[in-house]
Amino acid sequence: MTDNPQSPIETVEAGPVPQQQAPHRGTLVLVLGILGLVCCLICGIVAWVLGNTDLREMDAGRMDPEGRGLTQAGKICGIISVALAIIGLVVWVLMMLFAAGTGALAG
Q1: pTM score, whole prediction
Q2: How would you class 89 by CB atoms within 10 Å of its CB: exposed for 0-12, middle for 13-18, buried for 19 or more?
Q3: Among 14, 11, 6, 22, which Cα is nearest to 65's?
């Protein structure tokens, strides 16, 4: 006989059943963020919104957190693209006002 008090079969404690997590969309968010920087403001806005939504889902445990870095990078690119578009619009409006003002004075 053996002096080993452990049984050959180990029991495993049952814990909560893990929820099925949705796959992350980090690559999509990053691509949209980069497109927002390069050519299309709408892509930047979509990247920002999707990034916020996906990060919230990851924090809640409903989405795969492995794509968090890609999602954050895409969201930041989206924010930068929107900020640059707003700055560009303000500069354009100021230039038009300046051009209109100097044209009216010259005439």
Answers
A1: 0.75
A2: exposed
A3: 22
SS3 string of 41-71? HHHHHHHHHHHHHHHHHHHHCCECHHHHHHH
Best CA proximity match to 85, nearest among 93, 74, 96, 75: 93
The structural domains of the chain, with segments of one domain joined by +, span 26-106
Question: Contact at 8 Å (CB) between 35 and 41?
Answer: no
12 or 19, greater pLDDT: 19
Per-residue pLDDT tens digits for 19-37: 688 999 999 999 999 999 9
